Amino acid sequence: MQLEERKYLFDIQRAADRITRFCMNKQFQQYRSDELLRSAVERQFEIIGEALSHLARLNPEVTARIPEHRRIIAFRNILIHGYATVDDQIVWGVIENFLPALHESVTAFLNDQ
Questions:
Q1: Would you list the DSSP string of 65-82?
Q2: Angle at alpha carbon of residue 52, lines to 84 and 87, rounded to 5°
Q3: pTM of the model
Q4: pLDDT tens for each residue of 99-111
Q5: Is the pLDDT assigned to residue 112 strictly greater than 90?
Q6: What Cα–Cα distance (Å) separates residue 87 from each residue in 32, 45, 79, 100?
Q7: Where residue 85 falls among pLDDT bands split at 50, 70, 90?
Q8: Are 63 and 69 in contact (CB under 8 A)?
Q9: In this structure, which long-range contacts are made by residues 61-65, counting pairs with CB atoms below 8 Å and at least 24 apart in sequence?
Q10: Rounded Cα gap, residues 48 and 99, in angstroms
Q11: Helices in 24-98 by DSSP H: which ranges?
């Protein structure tokens, strides 16, 4: 794996770590009522989606092995372009239901190389 590909995987891993840390011991209502937290989480998801988009251009084979990579990139596009209609419940659901698998797969790639 090329250095640039590893950098994008590291960026994804680091952003997922941040989201996890930001939301640790929080409930949805706390997330929903904390404007700063929501902004920070959305920014990290934007980084994840952007890094995945770049990685997809560099190495589609690696990207294809990341669960839900197309949906993650689409989610980033919604956060960026549809910012006025972002549903906090959906973002929270992504944190709870999809982020752990993404983190696990990216960490496995980084550890294998």
A1: TSTTHHHHHHHHHHHHH-
A2: 25
A3: 0.94
A4: 999 999 999 989 9
A5: no
A6: 10, 14, 10, 20
A7: confident
A8: yes
A9: 62/1, 62/5, 62/9, 62/109, 65/105, 65/109
A10: 10
A11: 28-33, 35-58, 60-64, 69-81, 88-97
